[in-house]
Design a protein that fits this description.
The chain is an alpha/beta fold. It has 13 helices and 10 strands. The protein folds into 2 domains: 36 residues; 292 residues, Rossmann fold, CATH 3.40.50.11550. It has an 8-stranded mixed sheet with strand order 3-2-10-8-4-7-5-6, sandwiched between helices. The protein has a two-stranded parallel sheet with strand order 1-9.
Length: 338
Amino acid sequence: MSISSSSHPNLNAACKLGGLFLILGLLLSGCAGPHKPMPAIARIPEIKKPFFAGQILDLNAKCTISYPELVKRLSSSDIVFLGEIHDNPDHHLIQIQILQSLSEKWGKLTLAVEFLPSTKQLCLNRYMKGTTSEEQFLKEVNWARTWGFDYHFYRPLLDYQRMSGGPVVAINAPYELVKKVSRVGLRSLNPEERASLPQHIDLTDKAHRAFLRKIYGYHAHSSLTNFEYFYEAQCVWDETMAENVAKWFKKKGGKILVICGNGHILRGFGIPKRLRHRIKARVTTLLPYALKEPATLEPGIADFVWLTGKYLRIPKRYQGKLKSTRNQNAFDKKPQKN
C-alpha cells in the first residue's frame, strides 16, 4: 500500500524541509571548494599596508616603487650590491634583469662575483676572451668544488658580459682557506696563507657578532663547533670581497655591480661596511627576499627589497652533475626571519 504525502501533512512538510536542507548543503559544499592558503605578506613597522611577492620596496621611504624607478635610483650609485639566495631561481632572474638595465644606463660595467675566488681570475679571463670553451672553463675553476651551486643560474650573467665586453671580477676568498679558518681559526694559517688574505680583518663589530651568533644558533654544527672560528671565517669572506672590490675601483674606476649572497649585504654588516672603510663611493644595496612566511622588514636591512614568492628547492636527483652543497654557509641555510 502506498502512502500519499498529500494525505499526511506532517510527512509533506518533512519532505519539503528535507529537500531544502539538501539544496542548502549542495550550495555550501560547492562554495567551499578546496582550501586556498593566503599568500605570505611582509610588513614595515608603522605602515598599515601589507606588501606582497612581486613588489619592490624602498625601505627608507617605506613604500613601493616601480621597476623603472628602482633602476633610476640604482644608477645614481657607483657600486650596487645585489643579493641572492644561492639556489633561488627568482633571484637569479632579477640579477640578469638588473645587469641588463644598469648596462643600458651606465654603458659597459664591471660585474664582481662571489661565486669565484680571486685565485681563479686568470681562468675567468680566458673564458671571457673566448680562448677557452665553457666546458674547459668549468674544469679549470673546478666549479663543483669551488662553488657548487647550479652553474646555469649564473651562466646568463657571464654570457651577457661576454656579449657586452664588460669585465667580470672574481672577488671571493679561496674556499679551502675559509674552510680551514672555520674549523681551526685564523691563527692556524701559515704565513703564506695569511698573506693571501687582507692584512686587516675586523673582528670587533659587536652588532655584527651578535647578528651572526643568532644565525649560528639556528643550526646543529657537526663540524663548526667553535663560534669564534665560525665568526672569523665569515669576516674573512666579507673582508676579502670588500678588499677586492676596493682594489678594482681604485685601479679601474667605473661602475660596479656586485653579485653575492644576501647574508653578505644584509644590514650592511658584511661587504658594504668594510668597503666603505677602504674607499669613498656611492653604495646601494638591493636585497631579493623570498616570502616563505609573514615577515617584518626593518628599515636598515637594505636600501631596497624585492619581494619574491615561496620557491621549491630542487631534489638532488633532478639536479645537474655540477650541483653540490659543499660551499653553503650559514646564510644559505638560515630561515628568513626578521
